[in-house]
C-alpha cells in the first residue's frame, strides 16, 4: 500500500498481523531511519528530511501503536527492535544510519547494540542511558486523556482541554468518519513503563560514530548524564541546544545543522 503525502510517500507492510506504516521522503542520498518519540509519528520528520536532502534519504516509521501503524499486544523493548529489523528487511537495507528522539533514540541505540553490523552511524536526541529508576511514570497524565471518539475534529479537540495545544495535531479522522487521537493513551503509558531501566550496556554496546543531542533548557537528559554518556562511549560527540526536550520541533534549524555536520563526518 502506497499513498503520496505532501513531502513523502507513505507505505505499509504487515508484521505479525499488524500494519507497520512508514514515510519515505525519498531522494538519492544514503538511508537514514528516523524514529519518533511517544505520541509522535513519522511525518514529524518532514522538516528535518527537507533540511538533510539530497545527501540523506530519510525514512520514518510510525512506531507500533502510533500514527497509521496498528496497535500491538505488547510494547516491550524486544518488540520495538523487531519492528525496526523488519522494516530494514522490508526496505532491503543491509545497513543504515539511525536517528531517534526520546523513545526512538533508545530504540535506535539498543538496535545498534544488538545489530552493530547494520548501523553505520547513530544520532541520539534526548535518549537517556538510564531513566525511570525512581518508579515514576512521567506520562501518567495520558490516562486522563479522552479515549473515545467524536463526530468532528473540533469536538475532540475541545475534549482535550488544556492538552489541546500540545496534542491537537495528534487528532485524526478514523475510517468510520469519527475523530480520535492517533494513539491509544493506555498504550503510551504501558510503553513508557517498558522503556524505563538501566540501559548503559546497550548505550556502550556499539562502536559506530554517534551524536548525542541534549536540550539544555528543560530536556529530559540531564547535563551530568549526558557528559557521562559521551565519556563512556568512544566516538560520541555531544551537542547541547538551547531548547527543551522536543529538539527537532522547537529548534529545527539547530538540530538539523548538528545532525548534518555530524553525518558529513561519517
In short:
This protein has 266 residues and is of the alpha/beta class. The protein has helices at 46-52, 77-90, 103-114, 153-160, 164-167, 185-195, 200-203, 223-232, 247-250, 252-263, and strands spanning 2-4, 9-15, 18-24, 30-35, 56-61, 96-101, 119-125, 130-131, 171-173, 179-181, 197-198, 210-215, 236-241.
Strand content: 15-25%
Q: Determine Rg (CA atoms, Å).
A: 18 Å
Give the distance, in angstroms, between the N- and C-terminal Cα atoms. 34 Å
Oligomer: single chain
CATH second-level architecture: 3-Layer(aba) Sandwich
Structural class: alpha/beta
The CATH topology assignment is Rossmann fold
What is the residue-averaged pLDDT? 96
SSE string: EEEEHEHEHEEHHEEHEHEHEHH
Domains counted in the coordinates: how many? 1
Unreliable spans are: none
Largest sheet, spatial ordering of strands: 1-2-3-5-4-6-7-12-13
Topology:
Elements: E1 2-4, E2 9-15, E3 18-24, E4 30-35, H1 46-52, E5 56-61, H2 77-90, E6 96-101, H3 103-114, E7 119-125, E8 130-131, H4 153-160, H5 164-167, E9 171-173, E10 179-181, H6 185-195, E11 197-198, H7 200-203, E12 210-215, H8 223-232, E13 236-241, H9 247-250, H10 252-263
Parallel strand pairs: 4-5, 4-6, 6-7, 7-12, 12-13
Antiparallel strand pairs: 1-2, 2-3, 3-5, 8-11, 9-10
Amino acid at each position: 500500500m502506497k499513498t503520496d503525502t505532501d513531502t513523502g510517500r507513505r507505505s505499509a507492510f504487515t508484521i505479525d498481523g499488524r500494519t507497520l506504516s512508514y514515510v519515505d521522503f525519498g531522494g538519492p542520498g544514503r538511508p537514514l531511519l528516523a524514529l519518533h518519540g511517544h505520541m509522535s509519528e513519522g511525518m514529524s520528520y518532514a522538516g528535518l528530511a527537507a533540511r538533510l536532502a539530497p545527501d540523506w534519504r530519510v525514512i520514518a516509521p510510525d512506531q507500533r501503536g502510533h500514527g497509521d501503524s496498528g496497535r500491538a499486544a505488547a510494547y516491550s523493548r524486544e518488540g520495538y527492535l523487531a519492528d525496526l529489523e523488519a522494516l530494514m528487511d522490508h526496505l532491503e537495507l543491509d545497513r543504515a544510519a539511525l536517528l531517534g528522539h526520546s523513545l526512538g533514540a533508545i530504540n535506535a541505540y539498543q538496535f545498534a547494540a544488538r545489530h552493530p553490523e547494520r548501523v553505520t552511524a547513530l544520532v541520539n536526541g534526548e535518549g537517556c542511558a538510564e531513566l525511570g529508576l525512581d518508579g515514576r511514570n512521567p506520562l501518567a497524565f495520558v490516562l486522563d486523556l479522552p479515549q473515545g471518539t467524536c463526530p468532528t475534529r473540533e469536538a475532540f479537540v475541545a475534549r482535550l482541554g488544556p492538552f489541546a495545544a500540545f496534542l491537537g495535531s495528534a487528532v485524526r479522522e478514523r475510517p468510520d468518519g469519527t475523530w480520535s487521537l492517533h494513539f491509544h493513551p493506555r498504550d503510551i503509558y504501558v510503553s513508557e513503563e517498558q522503556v524505563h531501566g538501566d540501559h548503559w550496556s546497550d548505550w556502550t554496546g556499539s562502536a559506530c560514530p554517534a551524536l548525542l543531542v541534549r536540550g539544555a533548557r528543560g530536556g529530559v537528559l540531564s547535563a551530568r548524564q549526558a557528559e557521562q554518556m559521551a565519556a563512556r562511549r568512544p566516538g560520541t560527540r555531544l551537542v547541547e541546544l538551547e531548547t527543551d526536550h522536543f529538539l527537532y520541533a522547537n529548534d529545527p534549524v539547530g538540530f538539523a545543522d548538528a545532525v548534518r555536520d555530524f553525518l558529513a563526518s561519517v
